[in-house]
Amino acid sequence: MKILNAQLYPLEIPMLKPIKMASGAITHAQTLLIRLIDEEGREGWGEASSAPLMTGETLGSIAASTEYLSSKLLGQEIANPEAIESLQDKVLYGNASAKSCYETAVMDLFAQRKGVPLYQLLANRPINANGRLEMLHMLASGHLESELEEAKQLRQLGYRQWKIKVGTGNLTNDVLRVRELSKALQGDVVSADANQGMTIEEALAIAQTGIENGLSFFEQPFPTRMIEAATALHKETGMPLCADESIKSLDDIVELANLHAAQGVSLKLIKLGGTQAMVRAGRESLHLGLKINLACKVAETSISAAATAHVGFAVGDVAWGYSMSNRYLAKDICENPLAPIGGSISLEQLQRPGLGYAPNASHLAEFASKTLAVREFRI
User: Fold this and answer.
1) Are 194 and 324 in the same domain?
2) Alpha-carbon torsion 191, 298, 352, 125, what sign?
3) Cα four-point dihedral sign 158, 149, 210, 171
4) Are residues 96 and 194 in the same domain?
5) In this prediction, what percent of the chain has a pLDDT beyond 90?
6) Strand pairing of 264-267 and 241-243?
7) 182-200: b or e for each residue (b if 16 or more CB lie within 10 Å)?
8) For position 128, what pLDDT does the model report?
9) If I label 272, which of 3, 32, 82, 105 is the partner at 20 to 30 A Cα–Cα?
10) Helices vs strands, H then E, count in the chain
11) Model-level pTM greater than 0.85?
12) Any idea what the CATH number is for the domain that residue 295 is in?
């Protein structure tokens, strides 16, 4: 296969409502879409979002790196899916987000050429036709009463997995929210996520409250360098910890598992470099006895949401849920966005060849970045 045309679309999409995180409130998603066209005229799509504190990449840097990849790889023969990563590595070091964006679009094309959904190409083995990916919903307003009402309404729709955003500067409120939400949602998978925003004392307070009230796991309480603190927190409290920002590669996963600094992992395309790398990371995590959460960055569109869902079905065991973030956007760029049914994504929703999702051209124009231009490369 050869790519004859590449188009890059930097986007800024408003959130349905602000998401409060340790780094501040997010009001707009900044994300890059790529469209690749092969020699037979098929179109493949990929996406990568800005995550400066996770990958070190902004929308501008992702766009620049993806432009570089596109210009260097245009017209080159891609013999098979396994060849994509080595081709990218020959022209660009690092830059996992840009490589993920490009690799996803190429994998979309390969799956379309075979006439199969992307998960079949990734799995290379039989998939449970009744499989489901349970949605992990964020409770991130910081207001307990509104979060309790939000969870109550979604629970009636079938949601059973939750993530409480903590570490925003008010420990008393965070402890209260963890305690009351955990009690209200007993029997569900309830987690807290600090996005590296806590001290040892603060994390200890959250973990102890969580243990007392049935919290299932605590995600990334400390900055990535504080591995020993994570090990000590788990040993002292027994709270299972999920590593997110600490993971950039398979080696990171193995190290954290061996040091008992993580009992589970949050896997993202932009951290690992694409769909194939994410499947490998998921399978290795299961081999190591780790629980898996699959996640999109806040917030990505149906392009990344679908790609991550395909990975989830290829991996097969996602006990700590799927954080699909297009639901937090004011509007998705796809005309018929990927959306949960009864609190989960089913395999039936991913039966079209390839990724199965493509953006509406008018939405690309509506949410075009005001500072970064659309770029095109062609032969």
Assistant:
1) yes
2) negative
3) positive
4) no
5) 91
6) parallel
7) bebbeebbbbbbbbbbbee
8) 82
9) 3
10) 13, 14
11) yes
12) 3.20.20.120
Q: Tell me which amino acid residue 28 is.
A: H
Q: At 12, list the tokens.
A: 């800024």
- Per-residue tokens: 340: 């949960």
268 φ/ψ angles, rounded to the nearest 5 degrees = -130, 145
Predicted confidence at residue 238, as pLDDT, reads 98
Distance of CA 139 to the CA centre of its chain: 17
- pLDDT of residue 377 exceeding 80, the answer is yes
pLDDT grade, residue 127 (50/70/90)? Answer: confident
- Do 93 and 195 have their domain in common? no
| 85 and 208 belong to one structural domain | no
- Would you place residue 53 in the very low, low, confident or very high pLDDT band (cuts 50, 70, 90)? confident
Query: Does one domain contain both 146 and 62?
Result: no
Residue-wise pLDDT tens digits, 308-354: 999 999 999 999 999 999 998 999 999 999 999 999 999 999 999 99
Strands, E, within the chain: which ranges?
A: 3-21, 24-38, 43-49, 132-134, 136-139, 161-165, 189-193, 217-219, 241-243, 264-267, 291-295, 322-323, 344-346, 375-378
Whether the per-residue pLDDT at 23 is higher than 80: the answer is no
What's the Cα-to-Cα distance from 272 to each of 15, 55, 65, 98, 311, rounded to whole Å?
25, 10, 16, 11, 12
Q: What are the structure tokens assigned to 136, written together?
A: 């992990």
- The per-residue b/e assignment along 20-50, b for 16 or more CB within 10 angstroms, e otherwise, is bbbeeebebbbbbbbbbbbeeebbbbbbbbb
φ, ψ for residue 223 (rounded to 5)? -55, 155
149-192 pLDDT, tens digit per residue, is 999 999 999 999 999 999 988 999 999 999 999 999 999 999 99
Residue range of the domain that includes 17: 3-116+358-378
Question: Coil, helix or strand for 237?
Answer: helix
Encode pLDDT of 68-111 as tens digits: 999 999 999 999 999 999 999 999 999 999 999 999 999 999 99
Nearest to 287 by CA among 311, 259, 309, 258: 258
Residue located via tokens 């179109």: 43
